[in-house]
Write a structure and sequence with these properties.
Low-confidence stretches of chain A: none
CATH topology of the largest domain in chain B: Rossmann fold
Oligomer: heterodimer
CATH topology of chain A: Purple Acid Phosphatase, chain A, domain 2
Mean pLDDT of chain A: 89
Number of helices of chain B: 33
Number of domains of chain A: 1
InterPro entries (chain B): ATP-dep_Helicase, DEAD/DEAH_box_helicase_dom, DEXH_lig_assoc, Helicase_ATP-bd, Helicase_C-like, Lhr-like, Lhr-like_DEAD/DEAH_assoc, Lhr_WH_dom
Radius of gyration of chain A: 17 Å
Largest sheet of chain A: 9 strands, mixed
Shape of chain A: globular
Domain Helicase ATP-binding (chain B): 28-219
Pfam families (chain B): DEAD, DEAD_assoc, Helicase_C, WHD_Lhr
Radius of gyration of chain B: 28 Å
Largest sheet of chain B: 7 strands, parallel
Structural class of chain A: alpha/beta
CATH class of the largest domain in chain B: Alpha Beta
Domain Helicase C-terminal (chain B): 252-401
Strand content of chain B: 15-25%
CATH class of chain A: Alpha Beta
CATH superfamily of the largest domain in chain B: P-loop containing nucleotide triphosphate hydrolases
Number of strands of chain A: 16
Shape of chain B: globular
Mean pLDDT of chain B: 85
Number of helices of chain A: 4
Number of domains of chain B: 5
Distance between the termini of chain B: 81 Å
Low-confidence stretches of chain B: 719-725
Largest interface: A-B, 33 and 46 residues
Helix content of chain A: 10-25%
Structural class of chain B: alpha/beta
Distance between the termini of chain A: 25 Å
Protein name (chain B): DNA ligase-associated DEXH box helicase
Chain lengths: 219, 822
């Protein structure tokens, strides 16, 4: 497995994995964001032939991460599914059954539009706006984070953050990243079938870029 | 016996006081005999009438007694033209002739602008003549029952074939022709005669071969042989800048253009980029306010109606001058135009000839063209052009081969209409030049792509596009079919946004990339107007009139054509001549001071030499190389050289280039000398090395966007469904990443890589250039400061990071500095 990098908030340790998820040691939970499962299926249903192995690979990666960290809980901060139901969801259900020992908690994102009973059947507990546990808050859109109560640190996703690194000779590349501000964090999108939105951190913020198979502190 | 058709037409022409050109007579005869071929004639000499009247003569011969009697003929002549805007004009000219001949034929137009009701009418009752674009031709093939349309068809004309050849639209024409030919064979209907119409290109014979291939005949070339004298005159600056840089000099010479405009009836001023054309328009108005109302601007991003107005005004002789880009390269002649000014390098002999031909159309008249350099070195190009034209070194247009994206699109098109069987379709496409070399495995992959969507998790996949029913490939899903119809075509533009006034008036379109860098309140120029950005709403840029004195001129991507190989060759020889002082051309004699300085500091390369300059400045260590092969080859060669040097020693470069040469810049000395130069320029392992050079991946990503759009992977959305469509949108760079990681052998991805090699890197030309360098003397100099040759490249590399004003200040300081050091 690839080496995660520790990051401390309020005396809790969060392990940042190059596989785009966080293991929260004290909470015994994996935190992920923006899986967009079923996105390839959604495209393919419309006759757009994107490779389906992205989806398969995303599920495999998450499975390995769960096996590795053995968490009690998987906290998804939104956009677990991309759109309406399609056949790829059937594979997800089978995959979910093999992980019965793990609790799935989903804070709904703008893409999570499946009917409530679907989540119940899939063994996923959903929260509409936010979910709080162990002194931390979880929500989808970081724009709503300022409203959370004093002293509570929030984890969010939604924007698929990317950081631009400039090299010599006008070279410049963008990488997915973890962003930690004063009151909230933004996770990178877990799905490999997602683009990046550039962020401009201030000096006090911490940013970790994911470059190939390592997590590199940028500031 | 003279056939009746010929007599009717000749008598009609005589009544009008016209005589047919020899090439027209020749074409008529061939068409009357049912033959096929290619007419080679310049614009303005009745090339339309050569084929059109041929079809009419053929009809009269068929019905000598009652050709003037109305009847249900069905389609007789299919006229494929790349230009929507031309269809109306051509149609009008045909209708006029038919009216005078009292032949009751209908002339129909079918393109993206044609109303639905008109299409329906055509479906019920096909006109005898149908003028159609390649895209609409494919849309026709997506209709049920289309083969019946071609039952009565006698003649197909492909207009401006030289423009279509070498593009994916040309491939569309090849595919459509192969379908029509086979439909007619299957119906056992009337014989078909196929005619291309082309301006002069270097590979006319091949152009004919590509067109004739689906029909399976050799075909004849009919040449117009109309010599039109061309008079070229350069506009010389009063003082030669020894440190030239692109873009700057042109505007300074604008004053010299005013008397030319005033002495001429109508002048076309060709500018290479849309951005510069906006600047020129503004400048001309500033220095000659009396021209207000008498000059206009015409380029591809200006609103359609406004462009039409400009074209009409040109016909009506109400304009003194039009500042334009390649947007006016094609199309019908504007009779009143008697003078053409080319600003900056035309990049190729064919384009220069075509533009020169825009003036003085009448036989016996001289075409006048002025060349206005944008930097003093371009004067050498003027001298080179004169020579190239004298020696008729016109460029070739290479036909494209194995475009899988176009094939994927075409097969889906057929699947919407009548459907196809694999064996039949395979046989047909192998009859085209483009797909003659396709192999079974590639064909299987194309079919797998449209039927199964590549590799999939069988059980968990609902990919749906083409379905097979009793061996017939069909698209049955109506939404998929509708979406496909909206995406038929091979012209992929950059993401463009409409620009509108707050009050509602539409101005034109602008690249998203440009506008995304502006803040509300910033001013920019479009269609000759100063506009202030208010905001962006629903894919529309909302603006109001700006009162700011300074505004940003948009830099449109694209439009930066590389120097052609032919012009590069003559250019190298002309440099040779220029320096030898034997030259008599005024363009070359004025440049003597510049060449003297170049020789003093470094060297003026002879045609069998490659000059390399090592220069150290406070920016770092520069290496300038001058192959004169055009910017695309230079970009690839620079990346290749950078990669090969970095294997000797770890080193990073920044790269800059223009049409004459390129620069590698590094913060450490660059290890290139006489001992290793030959092996750094070797053709050994060329493919391997360029694919590993830094920007091959970046280039493939750019190419992949076009391929993905044509191949149906990128869904651009359509009006009314914007919101729903968002879940289906993904950027080309994301798709490129996903395909590269998860489906690297995908046929469309492989095509993008191939296109980078063939077109972006011009691999064949790069290889030829390296071969030439191998046989040349490599001359390495170490000038103490920047030379006249390298200066324009240096400035180009600064341009990317700076606004134009910062740039001008900085360049001026550099020039002063260098002049002082003398």
């Amino acid at each position: 497995m690839f080496l995660p990098v520790p990051h401390h908030i309020h005396n809790n340790t969060f392990w940042l994995s190059p596989e785009r998820c966080i293991y929260w040691e004290q909470g015994q939970a994996i935190i992920v964001s923006d899986l967009h499962l079923g996105k390839t299926g959604h495209f393919r249903k419309a006759g757009i032939a994107v490779p389906q192995s992205v989806f398969q690979h995303d599920l495999q990666r998450l499975f390995h991460l769960i096996q590795h960290h053995r968490p009690q809980q998987l906290i998804i901060v939104g956009d677990l599914f991309h759109s309406k139901e399609n056949k790829e969801m059937e594979l997800f259900i089978r995959w979910r059954e093999s992980l019965a020992q793990v609790n799935f908690t989903l804070v709904k994102g703008n893409h999570d539009i499946l009917p409530a009973q679907w989540y119940t059947q899939a063994g996923i507990v959903t929260h509409a706006e936010e979910y709080s546990t162990g002194g931390f808050c979880f929500t989808h859109d970081p724009a709503g984070c300022s409203a959370t109560s004093e002293g509570v640190y929030t984890f969010s996703g939604h924007i698929h953050p990317g950081i631009r690194l400039n090299g010599l000779g006008k070279q410049s590349l963008q990488f997915p990243c973890y962003y930690f501000g004063e009151t909230y964090a933004i996770l990178p999108a877990f799905s490999r079938f997602t683009g990046l939105a550039g962020i401009q951190p201030t000096r006090q913020d911490s940013v970790f870029a994911i470059v190939n198979q390592s997590v590199i502190p940028i500031q | 016996m003279i056939p009746p058709g010929h007599t009717v037409i000749t008598e009609w022409l005589t009544r009008k006081g016209f005589t047919a050109f020899a090439f027209q007579e020749e074409t008529w005869q061939h068409i009357a005999q049912g033959e096929s071929g290619l007419v080679n004639a310049p614009t303005g000499f009745g090339k339309t009438f050569s084929v059109f009247l041929g079809a009419v003569i053929q009809y009269i011969n068929q019905h000598p007694a009652d050709y003037q009697k109305p009847r249900k003929n069905g389609l007789q002549l299919l006229w494929i033209s790349p230009l929507r805007a031309l269809a109306k004009d051509i149609g009008r000219a045909m209708e006029e002739a038919l009216h005078e001949l009292q032949i009751p034929w209908q002339v129909g137009v079918r393109n993206g602008d044609t109303e639905m009701s008109e299409r329906q009418k055509q479906k019920r009752n096909m006109p005898e003549v149908l003028i159609i674009t390649p895209e609409s031709m494919h849309l026709l093939l997506a209709q049920k029952g289309y083969p019946d349309v071609f039952k009565s068809l006698r003649v197909i004309a492909v207009d401006e074939w030289h423009e279509l050849l070498g593009s994916k639209r040309g491939v569309q024409v090849e595919l459509a022709l192969s379908r029509v030919v086979h439909c007619k064979k299957a119906l056992n209907s009337t014989p078909l005669s196929l005619w291309g119409i082309s301006a002069t290109i270097g590979n006319l014979e091949q152009a004919k071969e590509v067109l004739m291939r689906p029909l399976g005949v050799a075909g004849i070339i009919v040449r117009a042989r109309l010599d039109k004298p061309i008079h070229i005159e350069s506009i010389l600056p009063d003082e030669i800048e020894k440190y030239p840089w692109a873009g700057h000099l042109g505007i300074k010479l604008a004053e010299k253009v005013i008397p030319i405009i005033e002495q001429s009836k109508t002048t076309l001023i060709f500018i290479n980029t849309r951005g510069m054309s906006e600047r020129w328009y503004q400048t001309l108005l500033t220095i000659a306010p009396q021209l207000a109302g008498a000059i206009a601007l015409h380029h591809g991003s200006i609103e359609h109606q406004l462009r039409i107005w400009v074209e009409d005004a040109l016909h009506a002789e109400t304009l003194k001058a039009v500042v334009c880009t390649a947007s006016l390269d094609l199309g019908v002649d504007f009779r009143p135009v008697d003078t053409v000014i080319q600003v900056g390098s035309p990049k190729g002999v064919a384009r220069f000839l075509q533009r020169a031909g825009r003036s003085g159309h009448r036989p016996g008249e001289v075409s006048h063209i002025y060349f206005l350099p944008t930097h003093s070195l371009e004067l050498v190009e003027a001298a080179a052009l004169k020579r190239a034209i004298k020696e008729e070194m016109v460029e070739s247009r290479e036909p494209m081969i194995l475009c899988f994206d176009v094939l994927v699109q075409y097969l889906c098109t057929l699947a919407i209409g009548e459907g196809f069987t694999a064996a039949q379709a395979y046989a047909e496409i192998k009859n085209t030049y483009c797909y003659a070399e396709i192999n079974d495995s590639e064909w299987e992959q194309v079919l797998a792509h449209i039927v199964h969507g590549g590799n999939a998790l069988q059980q968990y996949d609902d990919y749906k596009k083409v379905e097979i029913e009793n061996g017939l490939y069909r698209i049955k899903n109506r939404r998929v079919a509708m979406r496909h119809r909206m995406h038929i075509g091979t012209i992929v533009s950059d993401a463009m946004l409409k620009v509108k006034f707050m009050s509602g008036g539409y101005i034109g379109v602008i690249e998203e990339y440009f506008i995304s860098r502006l803040e509300p309140g910033d001013s920019f120029t479009l269609a000759g107007r100063n506009l202030q950005l208010v905001g962006i709403k629903d894919m529309t840029v909302i603006v109001k009139k700006s009162t700011a004195s300074k505004s940003i001129v948009p830099a449109w991507n694209g439009g930066r054509l590389p120097l052609s190989a032919n012009l590069g060759l003559v250019l190298r020889e002309t440099f040779n001549l220029a320096h030898s002082r034997k030259a008599k051309e005024p363009e070359l004699t004025v440049l003597h001071p510049l060449f003297r300085l170049q020789e003093k500091l470094s060297h003026v390369p002879k045609s069998n030499e490659l000059l390399i300059e090592h220069i150290e400045t406070k920016d770092g260590y520069h290496l300038f190389v001058y192959p004169f092969e055009g910017r695309l080859v230079h970009e690839a060669m620079a990346a290749l050289l950078a990669y090969r040097i970095s294997r000797i020693l770890p080193i990073t470069f920044s790269i800059a280039m223009n049409d004459y040469g390129f620069e590698l810049l590094s913060d450490q000395p660059i290890p290139l000398d006489d001992s290793n130069a030959p092996e750094l320029f070797t053709t050994d392992n060329l493919i391997h090395d360029i694919q590993r050079s830094a920007n091959a991946g970046e280039m493939a990503k750019r190419k992949f966007r076009d391929v993905a759009v044509i191949g149906g992977l990128i869904f651009q959305g359509y009006p009314g469904e914007q919101k729903k469509a968002r879940h289906l949108q993904s950027s080309a760079s994301l798709l490129y990443k996903v395909f590269s990681e998860y489906d690297p052998y995908n046929i469309l991805l492989r095509q993008a890589h191939q296109e980078v090699l063939d077109q972006q890197m011009e691999e064949a030309r790069l290889r030829a250039a390296l071969h030439r360098i191998q046989q040349s003397n490599i001359v390495i100099t170490v000038p103490v400061r920047l030379t006249p040759f390298c200066f324009p490249i240096k400035v180009d590399s600064l341009r990317e990071d700076m606004s134009s004003e910062q740039l001008e200040d900085r360049v001026r300081r550099m020039q002063q500095q260098l002049e002082k050091e003398k």
